[in-house]
Amino acid sequence: MLSPHEFTTLMLLNHNPDQIDPDRIEIRTLMERRLAALEPLASGSRRPRITPEGHAVLQAVARIR
């Protein structure tokens, strides 16, 4: 089960990944659960991205609403 902060981070990551700090603790938790990954950029920095599993979680929640 995701905490409210982790779920919110997943939603934000889906809509605007460039606005999420890759060092946030929630990103690490999402990565452990394979809902997010860090994508290396040409500049040498990393950008978090949502995985297919992360998309599936968001789609499942959207169906519940």
Describe it.
By secondary structure, the chain is an alpha+beta fold. It has one domain: Winged helix-like DNA-binding domain superfamily/Winged helix DNA-binding domain (Arc Repressor Mutant, subunit A), CATH 1.10.10.10. 51% of the residues lie in helices and 15% in strands. It is built from three helices and two strands, in the order H-H-E-E-H. A two-stranded antiparallel sheet has the order 1-2. The chain starts with a helix and ends with a helix.
List descriptors.
alpha+beta, globular, 65 residues, 51% helix
Please outline what is shown here.
The chain is α+β, with helices and mostly antiparallel strands. The protein is 51% helix and 15% strand.
Tally of DSSP helical segments: 3
- Using the CA coordinates, give the radius of gyration: 12 Å
Strand content: 15-25%
Q: What global shape is seen?
A: globular
Q: Numbering strands along the chain, what is their spatial order in the largest sheet?
A: 1-2
Uncertain runs are: none
Strand segment count: 2
Write out the CATH superfamily name.
Answer: Winged helix-like DNA-binding domain superfamily/Winged helix DNA-binding domain
Task: Identify the CATH class.
Answer: Mainly Alpha
Known CATH architecture: Orthogonal Bundle
Structural class: alpha+beta
Helices and strands, in N-to-C order?
HHEEH
CATH topology: Arc Repressor Mutant, subunit A
Number of domains: 1
Helix content: 40-55%
Distance between the termini: 17 Å
Tell me the major beta sheet. 2 strands, antiparallel
